[in-house]
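User: Please fill in residues for this 235-position structure.
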């Protein structure tokens, strides 16, 4: 009888040891599984971060404004008036400029443009260089019809009248503005702050608070040429 009891006790102890080993193995397997899962999750996080950063980098990278400013203006060869182009972004690309998600803050100045044709003013439209549907804006643009040109760039750079006229979609050279060509005594003259600037008006650079006047028609000594503009406070 005692032998049988000892045998049962040994079997019980053996069974307990087997259960303990099994439980220990389960715990180790659980730890290994949890560790493996943690590694997989960490790798996924790294991949997601890399992808997000890569996409974000392409969206937030500084625009390319390193090229020389354009000194020609491409656009319509038609008589005035000249409304703002329907495809603002396309006109900005034609000017060689980028579209931004917001106005730049590194270069922030304003100039004013008057266009006089045979003694009469031609409206400079608002929303030149602004794509409302796409939510983007050129560093060179207008907000309204006052003739104020806003230069709000993410990098320090000079901008030309030719770039603005390309954004406006109006051809401009030393010999024409739109369909109006120098002929039969009519001339195209450019003035900056009341001073005549001979040569190609598209190559004129714009500085803070410049008053730029393009005058087309028969030269008249008594015809007034704007030499200044009263900018709104803060501009």
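Assistant: Residues filled in for all 235 positions:
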């Amino acid at each position: 009888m005692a032998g049988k009891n000892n045998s049962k006790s040994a079997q019980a102890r053996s069974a307990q040891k087997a259960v303990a080993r099994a439980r220990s193995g389960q715990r180790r397997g659980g730890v290994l599984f949890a560790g493996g899962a943690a590694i997989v999750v960490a790798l996924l996080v790294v991949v997601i971060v890399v992808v997000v950063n890569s996409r974000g980098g392409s969206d937030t990278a500084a625009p390319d404004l390193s090229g020389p400013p354009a000194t020609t203006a491409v656009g319509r060869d038609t008589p005035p008036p000249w409304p703002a182009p329907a495809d603002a972004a396309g006109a900005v690309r034609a000017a060689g400029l980028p579209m931004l998600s917001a106005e730049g803050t590194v270069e922030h100045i304003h100039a004013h443009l008057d266009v006089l044709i045979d003694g009469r003013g031609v409206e400079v439209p608002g929303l030149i260089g602004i794509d409302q549907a796409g939510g983007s804006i050129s560093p060179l643009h207008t907000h309204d019809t006052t003739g104020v040109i806003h230069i709000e760039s993410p990098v320090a750079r000079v901008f030309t009248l030719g770039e603005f006229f390309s954004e406006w979609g109006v051809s401009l050279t030393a010999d024409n503005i739109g369909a109006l060509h120098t002929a039969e005594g009519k001339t195209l003259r450019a003035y900056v702050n009341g001073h005549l600037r001979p040569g190609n008006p598209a190559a004129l650079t714009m500085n803070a608070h410049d008053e730029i006047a393009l005058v087309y028609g028969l030269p008249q000594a008594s015809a007034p040429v704007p030499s200044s503009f009263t900018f709104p406070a803060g501009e």
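For context: The helical segments are 2-60, 88-94, 161-168.
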